[in-house]
Amino acid sequence: MNPIDQLRKLLLESSLLSSKNKEHLARVFYDATKITYLRQKRMNKPTLKMKEISSALILAETLHSQPFQFNAVGELAENFGGDFSEEKALEYFGSKVMGEVNDVHGRKVVIDEDAMKSLYKEEGTGKHIVDPENYEQVRGKRLPWIRFTIQGSRAIYVAEETFGGSFRRTFLYTGIATIPLQLQKPQVSYYIIPVREGKNGNLRMVTAYSMFTRNKFLSRIALSKPYVHL
């Protein structure tokens, strides 16, 4: 029997699995399928190798088994409520974000002035060009999440690529924040902090950004793999 038909029968017609287990399987399979599609598209390969499919399943499983979830309340929401100006964001970054921080594995991550460019994004190009018109309040309001996520998240993914003829490794520290809203359902925000590995294994924060849809989150991490600390 065709394996697709077998899976469809098992999930839709069979009573071997509880409805809850079927739902859990569907969630993992959906993410794995989406990741596989994104890899197929970006790698320009109509048919992926079995190990590339399997690694998509591993990535999807990790997304569900060890997410870093938190509620954006208290200090994590201290920049919310009304406007948060560029001036306030720069002051906050300099006094409360910049410096060094250790992740859950004891690895030191440097957050320097260059990372402050993450507050800016030029419309059209997406480049971090420092200009008042490129400042994004949503980035300033989420500044308290940077250290918190790097320090506490085990949901770390590794992206390896060749850029300009040189090998480059980036660690993606991720979190899923729940933002309480008055008179509305809480808003879920997916948060990613890329940290670049330099010479001698030094780690430096590159930027930080958020998104509100899971599909966009999957798109950002599709070519990565779960980080395993040795």
Q: So how many helices? A: 7
Mean pLDDT: 95
Largest sheet: 9 strands, mixed
Q: Kindly, what is the distance between the CA atoms of the first and last residues, rounded to a whole number of angstroms?
A: 42 Å
Care to count the β-strands? 9
Order of helices and strands: HHHEHEEHHEEEEEHE
Shape type? globular
Number of domains: 2
Percent range for helical residues? 25-40%
Uncertain runs are none
Strand-residue proportion: 15-25%
Question: Could you walk me through the main structural features you see in this protein, from its secondary elements to its overall organization?
Answer:
The mean pLDDT is about 95. This protein folds into 2 domains: about 5-65; about 70-225, no CATH class. By secondary structure, the chain is of the alpha+beta class. The N and C termini lie far apart (about 40 Å). It has helices at about 5-15, 20-40, 50-65, 85-95, 135-140, 145-150, 215-220, and strands at about 70, 100, 110, 155-165, 165-180, 185-195, 205, 210, 225. A hairpin with a 5-residue loop joins strand 6 (about 185-195) and strand 7 (about 205). The chain is globular, with a radius of gyration of 20 Å. About 35% of the residues lie in helices and about 25% in strands. The protein contains 7 helices and 9 strands.
